[in-house]
Amino acid sequence: xxxxxxxxxxxxxxxxxxxxxxxxxxxxxxxxxxxxxxxxxxxxxxxxxxxxxxxxxxxxxxxxxxxxxxxxxxxxxxxxxxxxxxxxxxxxxxxxxxxxxxxxxxxxxxxxxxxxxxxxxxxxxxxxxxxxxxxxxxxxxxxxxxxxxxxxxxxxxxxxxxxxxxxxxxxxxxxxxxxxxxxxxxxxxxxxxxxxxxxxxxxxxxxxxxxxxxxxxxxxxxxxxxxxxxxxxxxxxxxxxxxxxxxxxxxxxxxxxxxxxxxxxxxxxxxxxxxxxxxxxxxxxxxxxxxxxxxxxxxxxxxxxxxxxxxxxxxxxxxxxxxxxxxxxxxxxxxxxxxxxxxxxxxxxxxxxxxxxxxxxxxxxxxxxxxxxxxxxxxxxxxxxxxxxxxx
Length: 392
Fold this sequence. Notes:
Elements: H1 37-51, H2 58-75, E1 78-81, E2 87-91, E3 94-99, E4 102-105, E5 112-115, E6 123-127, E7 129-132, E8 140-143, H3 145-148, E9 149-151, E10 157-168, H4 173-178, H5 183-200, H6 204-208, H7 212-230, E11 234-245, H8 251-320, H9 322-338, E12 346-347, E13 354-355, H10 361-364
Antiparallel strand pairs: 1-4, 2-3, 2-5, 6-10, 7-8, 9-10, 10-11, 12-13
């Protein structure tokens, strides 16, 4: 041999004595010594002999043992699925069927195995906040700016905290188990990505005011589309915006701007209310004036038309008998003028004595005055003297 293991030579690597290899060390025996398998089998046989008749196994004993082991192996296929779970049976690692909650059976291991994910439970993921257990029964939350701060379409920063409710699709348990490795982490990453995309397409003002429902719907649809593309077997139940605020450093300024916008809207609404009240009144007054003018116009035209017609009729009669018509017009005019006045007739023609006795027939038709009241007749001087009819 080219080298010998004599003394402490250890060969060309200078190793020590027996059992060491070329790298200077041999197998190391450390820790507890493994149990002797033959000794364990011998002890087991001794225990079985105590329970078997005659103290010897024999062919019958081995048959009984085989039957008992086969029964135990077959009974190991029973499994229970809890109310919030769905069972998936695997045959040599391949998904073959799904089972509902309750007691079920599959072929014993290693032919078939069963997985029971909590597929009927609704899960919740919070993004932008974390719950901290204080050990007093009620936890507190802390903000996670790395998740909640997002950039809007008009290059502003907004702080968004939201929650996602999700569950496993009733027909997608196999996809949920085998297509994704970390379902909760996948849902969280997809939710944050979808929210950043939707926020990045929107301006900050609608986000802070009235676009919450629109944002929730858009994020829900985008998440579901992405997870279906992954084949994750996950159904998004709801997206809930918890808080949408500007960053803490500028929130006071944003609140002042929001208050100013509210005041502006209130002033505009008050002005619109005043305009809605004044304009109809003005329009009503205009319509009233127009209608009054139209009525006056129609009345004037009608009166003028009537007077013209009356004049034309009188003129026709006047042409037939001018003297009689003049006399009649004179008498009708004097009757209309003097009909309501007290009169004294004075006749001075042809040596008349002056006052003509006059019987006031109109006074006789008046009701008598009560006896207690003194009656005095007063003769009024006529405002216009009139001669007797014989003088005309």
